[in-house]
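[stage:ingest] chain + small molecule (glutamine)
[stage:ingest] validated
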Amino acid sequence: MTTTTTTHIQETLQNVYDKFKDVRDGEVASYIPELAKAKPDDFGISLTTVDGQVFSVGDFEKEFTIQSICKPFAFLMALEEFGRDAVLEKVCVEPSGDAFNSIELEPKTMRPFNPMINAGAIAIASMIKKSSRDCGVQYFVDKMGLAAGRKLDIDQAVLVSETETGNRNRAIAYLMLNCGIIDAAVDHALHQYFAQCSLKVNCQDLAMMSATLANMGINPVTKQQVFGLEYVKDVLAVMFTCGLYDYAGEWAYRVGLPAKSGVGGGIVAVVNRQLGISVYSPRLDAKGNSVRGIAVCKELAAHLGLHAFDFTNVGSSFMEWLTAAK
Ligand code: GLN
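[stage:predict] done
[stage:export] tokens:
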């Protein structure tokens, strides 16, 4: 990548940051009390290319909890451990069109609608929980650390807060126990899920994780194969159709990228075989998605021609654009 190109990417991020830095719409999540302590005006953007270039602006080193952005990665770990059929037996891959925490199962099969909402993610957590609580959580934390390219930890205060106030998730889990979707170790499965949500990351970590998905499971900087190639496409497909909950349809229409948001204020988007984007801004809209996160992704997708079906712009592919700029 030439200096001109890298300067251009950094300038683009800075311009997008400047454009939205004064937006104050939305509210920090407060239903998990510990999340209410986030600084509402924090704002960071990171972009990592599959050839290992890292670009960031704003509060990109500020740590926060990953929350629902853990879900696609946990889904991937379940696919790797159990295979497609066994996972699909427990969780569908249909958009629910409902909120992330809705208490509902697909009426015919009684499976959760997809692994990106809480019900599906708790079913996945039950599958990957391993024989002891520490073992299952450590496996997840270590693997996510490989995707981020640095050692990661659980935020214990958020984990306690999730556990103390997670009665809605408990209700979802018991409903799934009743329907034979998860086994009787309900507290163990919930601990796995709450711990996954409480993983501490920064914006740059998320961009590296999403670039790892874009790069066929290989971390673009360490070059380590973190996830097997076979199931990455499964995860990207479900992120594309279900990653933004009841905003997923409009997101696919307007941004056109596999993505996932979390109530901690993070959002990631994947440009397959090209790059990973992440935004951190804790003010959320009514659907639990970061307001500035959505705005930034829309702007970058439009500006860089990243929409999956964008054939109209000259140089609509980011990589073509990069090559042209050389
Ligand atoms: N821990 C949160 C919950 O279970 C995750 C939700 C989210 O990020 N959308 O409610």
